[in-house]
């Protein structure tokens, strides 16, 4: 069969659809690994059920219109670096009062939103040291991510797909190839059938930042602070964070994917590889 392996799953009821939104912090190249930003690649994923996502999309648009008034034809896109540096549309955040209100409302929106969170952190220095011919960091990170997403979907007997933000032609191709490899061949002792049972498409969906995808904007906001949190929990960095990051991390603490019976987060909601 060509195309998607399970065409009957392409049109489930909207409220039953799941989608995993991906973003990353760090890069995939094996260079300058003495620097923390280059040493660790974090692939972060947020997954939503359809009705919860519709509520989040509406809430995010209302939040942006409240704090950064704009024309619907020229939407504001949340991007962590622009927000932190008050660039572009976020120049208003140079005012202390405006910044405080923006931060409070964003943290409240994240806290009230129903989604699940997974962070996969690849230590590229350890990877190169332990494995003579290591797999590509994207392939490893996405394999671990899809294990957790598909494991959840199969457990609750639901199906979903995956969307990532475009990073450039080369990066998009690497991530797409990694996704298709896992879908076709499986990963880490999990057969391909486990992934094919859960995923509605054998292709990764990729959208540009300009598409104004709410789930991708959330993943962008969370990727950097969550990476820092994971590294701190494995003793790779000090457990101190800027004030806003601390508030965001508190808001998402209960959203990490967990082992369904014992509630374990390590290995389910976040992974460091190799340890």
From TrEMBL:
This is DUF3800 domain-containing protein. It comes from candidate division WOR-3 bacterium.
């Amino acid at each position: 069969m060509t195309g998607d392996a399970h065409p009957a799953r392409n049109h489930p009821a909207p409220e039953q659809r799941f989608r995993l939104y991906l973003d990353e912090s760090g890069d995939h190249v094996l260079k300058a690994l003495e620097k923390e930003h280059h040493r660790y690649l974090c692939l972060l994923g947020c997954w939503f059920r359809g009705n919860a996502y519709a509520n989040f999309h509406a809430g995010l648009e209302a939040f942006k219109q409240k704090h950064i008034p704009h024309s619907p034809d020229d939407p504001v896109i949340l991007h962590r670096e622009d927000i932190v540096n008050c660039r572009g549309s976020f120049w208003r955040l140079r005012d202390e009062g405006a910044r405080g209100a923006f931060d409070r409302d964003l943290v409240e929106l994240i806290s009230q939103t129903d989604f699940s969170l997974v962070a996969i952190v690849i230590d590229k220095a350890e990877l190169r040291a332990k494995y003579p011919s290591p797999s590509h960091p994207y392939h490893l990170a996405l394999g671990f991510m899809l294990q957790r997403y598909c494991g959840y979907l199969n457990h609750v007997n639901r199906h979903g797909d995956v969307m990532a933000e475009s990073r450039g032609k080369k990066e998009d191709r690497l991530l797409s190839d990694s996704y298709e490899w896992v879908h076709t061949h499986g990963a880490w002792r999990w057969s391909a059938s486990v992934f094919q049972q859960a995923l509605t498409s054998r292709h990764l969906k990729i959208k540009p930042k300009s598409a104004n995808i709410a789930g991708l904007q959330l993943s962008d906001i969370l990727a950097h602070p969550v990476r820092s949190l994971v590294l701190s929990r494995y003793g790779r960095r000090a457990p101190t964070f800027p004030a806003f990051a601390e508030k965001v991390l508190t808001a998402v603490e209960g959203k990490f994917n967990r082992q369904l019976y014992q509630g374990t987060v390590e290995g389910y909601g976040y992974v460091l590889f190799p340890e």
